[in-house]
Amino acid sequence: MSESGRIPAALIRELRSARHVCVLTGAGISAESGVPTFRDAQSGLWEKYDPLDLATPEAFRQDPALIWRWYRWRRELVAAAIPNAGHVALARLASFVPRLTLVTQNVDGLHQRAGSADVIEFHGNLFDDRCAADGCVVDCDSVAEVPVCPGCGSNVRPGVVWFGESIPETALHHSFAAAAECDVFLSIGTSSLVFPAAGLAEIANESGATVAEINPNTTGMAAGFDYAIAGKSGTVLPELVARLEARD
Ligand code: OAD
Questions:
Q1: Cα–Cα distance between 21 and 97 in angstroms, integer?
Q2: All domains of the chain, ordered by start, with CATH?
């Protein structure tokens, strides 16, 4: 069953009695900070490229300089962005529940900058540099068109997870454990199209948690969730935290 529109009173009650809340966020939560989502068309300089074609190991092998130009552009964009009301509300949510696990598919670090602790970065971090040969984190001269690993001389790549690559083991383990044992699972600002991240809500659902989606465009997955709140995270999340705070 799915309920759209305003925040249901039952969800607020379930959040109040929850021992463990697990949250999964996607690109939509950073949209109101001016960071483009993956499935929006790109604009300006990058409008002829599909981000899904740039975020692959094959694309990096073919044209590492192009991929680095795109990631430098993203780094600059994210460095200039500031966390929005949705990020801030999620950081506050942690003080209203005994335990909160925040898993993000985003690589922008905006949750951490809003004050969230122990964020699980499912798809890595935009600002890490890794050796493309062995994956080790490197400290390199990232001014070069394609930086090279000071240890082995291989190309250096951005420290994000690309299509077809594995999720970091610790992130995967902790996320799936949290989804399986939480009482309430919130799926926020994600199209729920990319697995294994999209599978977390399914695990929570099957394990008996209450599952709610917050997204202005209700996704195909939401029909199987308990609640679908059709709204922007920058509006819905502050309202949700205010309701918890008010104890109405
Ligand atoms: P998508 O770009 O697929 O989806 C963004 C979602 O955010 C859409 O469902 C929008 O409706 C929603 N949205 C837009 N504005 C919003 C707002 N203000 N508040 C709440 N929701 C809003 O992004 P993800 O689901 O994060 O992976 O994509 C998942 C993964 O696919 C990414 O981590 C990345 C990408 O390819 C890799 O690169 C491996």
A1: 7
A2: 1-35+82-123+167-248 (3.40.50.1220), 36-80+126-160 (3.30.1600.10)
